[in-house]
Amino acid sequence: MLRLLRLKQLNKPLLRQTIRLQSTVETPKTFNCNEEAELEYQPGFAFSVFPRIQDVHTNDLVGSDSFGKDKYYVERSATGNLPVYIDVKNGGNVFTELRKIHGNVMKLRNDLQEQLPHIPKQNWKCVVQSNKIVIKGDFSQEVKRVLQTTF
């Protein structure tokens, strides 16, 4: 008997009354399936979110812009400096490296050669695999000056 009373007392908090609030928004109109539909079937009409493949042009595609075709961009380092570094190889040979190049490395090299004609053309080397330009000699200040003013 005592057990039944305790069970009844435990069940009381679980039997809460649910309050349903009525929305102030107008209820949507329902569609009766038994009535005739106002929409007519149109043969050949198909609704799709995506356009047909015949209607898509190559200029509309993402990544189809002409970046990389005679265009380039030199990304700055995390501290905001230009990525121009001096590298000293064994034997004392000094090289200037320009890194973080996005786009056409050869076009950037040609533009830099026009701006810096006093550096012989045989000293320039493009490393396309790692997107960098290597110049034999210490020309870091000149390259930085050209990149800051011209590009």
TrEMBL record:
UniProt record similarity statement: Belongs to the mitochondrion-specific ribosomal protein mL49 family.
Gene Ontology MF annotations: structural constituent of ribosome
Record organism: Zygosaccharomyces rouxii (strain ATCC 2623 / CBS 732 / NBRC 1130 / NCYC 568 / NRRL Y-229)
Record PANTHER family: LARGE RIBOSOMAL SUBUNIT PROTEIN ML49, MITOCHONDRIAL 39S RIBOSOMAL PROTEIN L49
Pfam families in UniProt: Img2 (PF05046)
One cellular component (GO) term of this entry: mitochondrial large ribosomal subunit
GO BP terms: translation
Main localization, broad class: mitochondrion
Protein name: Large ribosomal subunit protein mL49
Compartment(s): Mitochondrion
Keywords: Mitochondrion, Ribonucleoprotein, Ribosomal protein
